[in-house]
Design brief:
Layout lengths: L2 H6 L4 E6 L15 H7 L7 E4 L11 H10 L4 E6 L5 H13 L4 E5 L20 H12 L16 E6 L6 H14 L3 E6 L3 H11 L6 E6 L4 H10 L7 H8 L6 H16 L5 E5 L7 H7 L5
Parallel strand pairs: 1-2, 1-8, 2-3, 3-4, 4-5, 5-6, 6-7, 7-8
């Protein structure tokens, strides 16, 4: 199932994400893997599940292997692929491999820098950036590789891309978004958004591009987490009001408060968007509650 088919039917597309384990998938199928445990909370309430690719440059199980396992478990995976760890040969090969094992959707990103992760001595590749990778993926769909060699069979996958509405200046982000569309992007998932006024400004400028946009939200787990994101992650700004509200509850009530705050944001912005993408960072168990309070049914 390609997400583009859902967008064309004007469905409100709901996705979430899981992070592969720091370890292999057990060959004993009776052992439930970490990403499957997380994803089971999402069954029946989301259309698809993003599978992160060495998120934050931390070495984990590959996103392709985890995507395959989720597919076997009845989930629709969105295969994330970053430029950080692969050259152009490997990137093209991995896209062909993903389609060949039944993956219909991919999200193509540049990737977090090595300095953020747990293998700081590693050599980053970045042979391509996300715009170039999207163009190459679109070329593969059209039947040729990067150097115009003909393919024996083309991978018919939906291509997703990322945009950061709160990045300043916004005009540069809109220019990059337009380049990604020209390269072949079918839909967008945003980085985390919390500022409703700024997001409305972004949507007014981006809607002329004619591509579906899913609002991305990282679930805020604590005031300390919000302050960390403000200080260390470019393009993300959690308002002081959110930090104050999260600070007002005890630790045991943070999940309930996160549900309340996230659902409220979704209700406010839903008329402007074509879907949402929730990044729970392990809190997949509260995603069904968020969707219920946001009055979203899948």
């Amino acid at each position: 199932m390609k997400l583009t088919d859902l967008f064309e039917k004007h469905e409100f597309v709901v996705t979430s994400e899981v992070g592969p384990a720091k370890g292999a998938i057990p060959r004993d199928i009776s052992i439930v893997t970490n990403c499957v445990k997380e994803a089971r909370h999402l069954l029946g309430c989301v259309h698809a599940v993003n599978v992160t690719d060495n998120q934050s440059a931390v070495m984990r199980l590959g996103s392709l292997a985890a995507s395959i396992r989720l597919k076997q478990e009845g989930f629709e995976p969105i295969y994330q692929l970053t430029c950080r760890d692969r050259n152009r040969l490997a990137l093209q090969s991995d896209i062909l491999s993903a389609y060949s094992v039944g993956i219909d959707n991919m999200l193509l990103l540049t990737g977090d820098h090595i300095k953020l992760g747990d293998h700081k001595a590693a050599k980053p590749v970045f042979d391509l950036d996300s715009v170039q990778l999207i163009k190459i993926a679109d070329g593969l769909r059209k039947g040729h590789d990067m150097v115009e060699n003909e393919l024996s069979y083309s991978p018919d996958m939906a291509i997703g891309a990322v945009v950061t509405p709160q990045f300043e200046p916004m005009e540069l982000q809109l220019m990059k978004m337009e380049k990604k569309i020209q390269a072949g992007a079918d839909f967008f998932q945003t980085q985390a958004v919390y500022d409703t006024v700024l997001f409305e400004e972004f949507i007014k400028k981006a809607e002329s591009f004619g591509r579906p946009i899913q609002l991305g939200i990282v679930l805020v787990k604590s005031a300390k987490m919000a302050e960390f994101m403000n200080k260390n992650i470019a393009g993300i700004s959690v308002p002081d009001s959110w930090i104050k509200e999260m600070s007002s509850v005890e630790k045991d009530d943070r999940k309930k408060k996160s549900v309340e705050m996230t659902a409220r944001l979704i209700r406010e912005l839903k008329p402007m968007i074509q879907g949402i993408h929730l990044m729970p960072l392990g809190w997949t168990d509260i995603v069904p509650d968020i969707l219920e309070q946001a009055e979203i049914k899948n």
